[in-house]
Amino acid sequence: MRTLRVVLADDDDLMRAGLCAVLSTDETLQVVGEAADGREAVTRTRQLRPDVVLMDVRMPGMDGIAATETIVQTVPETRVLILTTFEDDDYVLGALHAGASGFLLKRARPEQLIAAIHTIAAGESLLAPAVTTTVISRLVSQPRRNPTAHHRLNTLTPRERDVLHLLARGLSNAEIAERLHIEESTVKTHGKRILAKLQLRDRVQAVILAYETGLVVPGAPDPTPGR
């Protein structure tokens, strides 16, 4: 397994030291740089090209959301994992719309953090359960009007819409495969096509779009298998 390069962005020196200590327990992770604010995080990311940036939200000067947006636009191969004490829905949605690939609370256990970094680096997305609840409740209560997104949804096949629906429900690839009676590899292929057609970066953005457009409505039945 190759070594994953990580940059830490947090204005708390003690927090960065603690994160370094946690990540040092996994020999496949290497902290290659640190930043005390968003602007420095952007600079270090551009210089070091890490696999993952652990990004705090509230930092002086440029905050973590603005820094995430800049990194996603200028260093797209780097993934951003938001790590914060705040569950406020404005911070969560702001970070995810900026292009963050995941959101984890700082109270997460060390093994959860390490697993999250590997998940993000592998091209998957991740939301802490408490954060998922916050995101979905906000998206349902305040859907965004996005005619372009609705038009893009029309490019999906019926099966791709089924897969997107179940992704937004939080099912894993294996669970989707079982529900729709298809191979897990087929689910992965559908997932890639969905992201390409909808012009999305990852599954987190796909979930956001599914709720914002009303494709998924809490309480509504899941797709009928075997269509």
Q: Taking strands numbered 1, 2, ... along the chain, how are they ordered across the largest sheet?
A: 2-1-3-4-5-6
Order of helices and strands: EHEHEHEHEHEHHHHHH
Report the sheet with the most strands, covering strand number, pairing sense and barrel closure: 6 strands, parallel
What proportion of the residues form beta strands (DSSP E)? 5-15%
User: What coarse outline follows from CA principal-axis ratios?
Assistant: globular
Number of strands: 6
Residues in helix, %: 40-55%
Alpha-beta content class: alpha/beta
Low-confidence stretches: none
Number of H- or I-type helical stretches: 11
Nearest-integer average pLDDT: 84
**CA-based gyration radius:** 18 Å
Structure description:
- With 227 residues, this protein is an alpha/beta fold.
- 52% of the residues lie in helices and 13% in strands.
- The protein has helices at 13-23, 38-48, 64-74, 89-98, 110-121, 129-141, 147-153, 158-168, 173-180, 184-198, 203-212, and strands at residues 4-9, 29-35, 52-55, 79-84, 102-105, 126-127.
- The longest helix has 15 residues, at 184-198.
What's the short version?
By secondary structure, the chain is an alpha/beta fold. The protein has helices at 13-23, 38-48, 64-74, 89-98, 110-121, 129-141, 147-153, 158-168, 173-180, 184-198, 203-212; strands at residues 4-9, 29-35, 52-55, 79-84, 102-105, 126-127.
